[in-house]
Amino acid sequence: MIPVVQEFLNVSKQTVETGTVRVSKKVEEKVEDVSMPLMQEEIVIDRVPIGTTISAEAPLSRYEGDTLIIPVVKEEYVVQKRLVLVEEVRITKRTIVTEFKEQVKLRKEVIEVKEEKKD
User: Fold this and answer.
1) Are the C-beta atoms of 99 and 89 separated by less than 8 Å?
2) What does each C-alpha distance from 86 to 48, 80, 82, 83, 95 come to in angstroms?
3) Do the beta carbons of residue 69 and residue 62 sit within 8 Å?
4) How much is the pTM?
5) pLDDT tens, per residue, the chain with 119 residues
């Protein structure tokens, strides 16, 4: 018999301190002038009283230049008394002549006067 030999390798690692490092943090401040354009819009609201009667439809919103005009309407009841000529009744007076025939007894008194002469 021939002996067989085998080798094994065992590898390991070890931490070895070789030196140190120190890290520090520092904040520096520096003042600089900055110029930047800023835009701002203002809204100007004007309430303009009108007080006129309009047709049956409300007017639409519209622009006049940069101004948006929004109409504000309200409904009002209007009670109105008025005369309405419903009809005319026409009455006309007419004279109508008709012939009337009938037999009628009429009476008449007659006086007879006789004079007698005397001789």
Assistant:
1) no
2) 44, 17, 12, 9, 30
3) yes
4) 0.41
5) 787 777 777 878 888 888 787 878 888 888 888 888 888 888 899 999 998 888 878 889 999 998 999 999 988 888 888 887 788 888 888 888 888 788 888 888 878 777 777 76
